[in-house]
Amino acid sequence: MEEKKSQKHTFYMQDRKELHLSGVLDVRSFDEQEAVLDTEMGVLIIRGNSLHMGRFTLEKGEIDIDGRVDSFVYTDKKGRGKNGESFFARLLR
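^ that's the sequence the OP posted. Answer follows.
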C-alpha cells in the first residue's frame, strides 16, 4: 500500500468569497452552508452561504470554494474517538 506524502497546508481567501486550500486530505461533507474537510492541520469546518466547490483535486490535495464565508474553525488533528469514529458520528448516535 502506497503511503501518502505529507504536504504543506495553505489557506488563501479573497474578499470572503473565494477560497483556495491545499493540504486537503478528504471532504467529509459539503453543502451550501457548511464544508467539513480533513486537512494536514486537522479537521476544518467552513460555514457560510451559497458555498460551491469549484475544483477538488484529491491527488494534489487542493480545493477551491466560492460563496460567502462566515467562519472557519480547525478542530483537533486527531478528531476521532477511541474506536475510530468521527466526532460527528458519535454526536449523531
